[in-house]
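Lab notebook, bench 4. The sequencing result for the construct came back, and we need a structural model before the next group meeting so we can plan mutations. Quick request posted to the team channel:

Model the 3D structure of this chain.
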Amino acid sequence: MEFYKVVASGNDFVVIDNRGKIIKRGKDFAVKVCDRKFGVGADGLILVEDSKICDFKMRMFNPDGSEAEMCGNGLRCLIRFLREKGISRKRKFLIEAKAGIYECEINGENVKVWMKVIGKPNLYIEIPLNRKKLKGHYIDSGVPHTVIFTKDVGKVNIEKIGPLIRYHEIFKPRGTNVDFVEVLDKGRIKIRTYERGVEKETLSCGTGVVAGAVISFLLKKVNSPVKVITASGDTLKVGISDDLKKIYLEGKTFISFWGEYPYK
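Done. Here's the predicted structure in token form:
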């Protein structure tokens, strides 16, 4: 089975054309193929499938086998895959995901995705943690995120604090991704994300970048558009309208390599 390894600001995915329904159980396959020791290794598995209502359908599975409602960087990688594989030469796409329908656009190295905020963000949440209370801000940018501001993201012990918030009882049953944000100025923020389903920090998270940017915008810490510096060092751009009805995520994507996987 042919696969492509596609990367968006350090967030890497195994992308496969599954329009022929070769892969029946994405959950089981994701656990195997995403393993960095015994598989290809990736932050997630993206399956391209046919859609009755859009150009294509995206199914995204985390390394633990859970299926995500949406993945911003994964969607940008899917668009890169469609172009590089020659499946479509279109510049603009409508893609179906579990969280809804997404408009996408490719322009050279850059891929732009028009994102959504689902429901109303919940600001100034108090999170009881080890006899202390952290102040966080909850938002669903396709998947659940909790944004916490800090003076220096580089000093955050994310592998220790991340799981405590990700599995905290106030976010059950869905759990939450956890984003630590440092505001640099009115046009830039830095972010680190502990990802649900990956269960560790990733070099970038598209929905996390959007979550961090939108919360920063709502709290008037930044203006739109805002540049977001990810843990990989790459910078993504997020544009936000005042009513949150028009939000885009934009940045570079590329093919790392491709090969054959012995699928049975």
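The longest helix spans residues 72-84.
Will bring this to the meeting.
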